[in-house]
Give the backbone structure.
Amino acid sequence: MTSVLETTTISPLLQVRDLKMHFPVKEGVFMRTGKYNKAVDGVSFDIMPGETLGLVGESGCGKSTLGRCIARLYQPTAGEIVFDGTDISRLGRKALMPFRRDIQMIFQDPMESLNSRHTVGEILEEPFIVQKIGNRISRQQRVRELLDVVGLPARSVTRYPFEFSGGQRQRIGIARSIALNPRLIICDEPVSALDVSIQSQILNLLVDLQKEFHLSYLFIAHDLAVVKHISDRIAIMYLGKVVETGLGESIYRTARHPYTQSLISAIPVPDPHRKSQRQVLSGDVPSPINPPAGCTFHTRCPKVMDICRTVPPLLTTDGQPVACHLYPGSTP
Amino acid sequence: MPEPLLSVRNLITEFDTDEGRVRAVDDISFSIDAGQTLGIVGESGCGKSVTAQSIMRLLPQPMGQINGGQIVFQGQDLVTLGLDHMQKIRGARIGMVFQEPMTALNPVHTIGRQLTEVILLHKKVSKDQAIREAVHMLDRVGIPAPDIRMTEYPHQLSGGMRQRVVIAMALVCQPALLIADEPTTALDVTIQAQILELIKELQAEMGMAVMLITHDLGVIAETSSSVVVMYAGKVVESGSVFDIFDRPTHPYTRGLLESIPRLDTPQKARLQIIPGMVPGLLDLPRGCRFENRCRFRQDHCTTAHPPTEMVETGHDVACYEWRTVVQHEVGTGGDSSRFKLSAIA
């Protein structure tokens, strides 16, 4: 296997290097910037063509902010976002235009991300108009194709988003995201708002589309079971930092970081025979405005040591990188 | 056999909407024994929350009304009970926890004021005594520095802490029944684990019964001893937690169990799906409500809703075709090794 990888050099589609997104926090009567919300604080990873990277973490860990930085909905504070060889982290509006075609986004709540005053036909045609592609006839032809690909009837063209159910609306959102033949789609909690029986329909659709169009996904979700199902590799985030990455199966079977371990043990398993051997984490996620010194997880960690309170751990460089002082290579 | 603590019999709850009257809960029956945990599972719009609101007599007014059946709690029918009597039961003998703790708490009053209000309303104690009880209760639900928290407002607490306060409010009068409507859905998974453990601990300590409403089959499997599965206003299957997970008999229950991604399923494998979607309450099918999505459908399924039949003692199903269903292995096409069906068939 390794020899194949060595001989055929596949370069990553996306390389994120030490990305930081610090939001200023305005305080006091004069609204001065005193502190920063370090939502994303030094994150690095790669996504290969056709690969799905799952990004898991609890609310406030910075996973959505990270996704929005890569889609360049935000201008990151520092770091590089190298897409297909070009660093897009500092590009201006005009220079970004071609990359907007290649990087698309699917949001959690399609009711909020679809314009409620536009028909589905108008919503799906808009990307082509913005990018000045085709004429009216060819655009409408493409809209019908898109509806067919995501499994919606052709008559949906004249309907409005509110006329559809949650699952169907998410199909519209997906159709819009694949309209311009993108290479990377950032899926931000795409199934969290859906009912169980609809969720599996959408997950199957995403897997089918990936195979058919050779898409790469950054799949952001808090549900580890869903993420593991769809992802090739998984990155676990806690308070703006990646604490562990690895293949989906190995993250689940041999989680190394104490946070990953407790995250996995916290998931309720739909099997009444299974005896719960849960490690319940105490306390809440600390505020990213004033994160704990050292390892940011030390306030909740069941295996905390003295060094954790002062020295921030580094991601190891072995097969399943982990940022935890329990592992050699993590302590600087 | 002792009387169940709560017994819902043929309950019908309807709503008046602009488009006409809809039946959100249609002729459902189930019961809960003292100290037991009953899980009610179903997707949005199946009527599980309306069932809880009916029991608490907290239906949105004037649209919602109970138009049939009985809700017998400790020998009293709550449907016909006067509102002043109902108020004495609510919060004292039946506690309730909602999904979104911020909406259950009053944002302009301190935690302490809201907690003592409940105690003073239901118990004949002095204000000082009420404050002492409130602090004690906050301590029991695991809130650090409870006497300081008493003086704080809901927005000063995290989501998990707020839900602990709501649980403290629901349990401060030691109710015989706790109704928890999606108590952990808005919370992160590590906080969810804390809250579920807390409810379990307090239940063991206080001996109350819990009616847990959720869409999460994992939560049901870990907490409940009995399960009621609802679909479009009807109970389609009920039984012990082992009946439901090991020997699911209704096609909908099976569909739910098969369609969830699990940590132990192979990556990117095709998930089983339930085709189509839940019918709207305004245009329900005449026959079985699941008929248009069901792979076991026969002609008679479309004419009338199937009666509830007994599969085994304590395990009931509303499906004409259940005898055919049980002969099919669960998860055909997917990974079927998890399920053992030999017990019936």
Notes: Chain B touches chain A through 47 residues (CB under 8 Å). The longest helix of chain B spans residues 189-206. Chain B is about 30% helix and 20% strand.
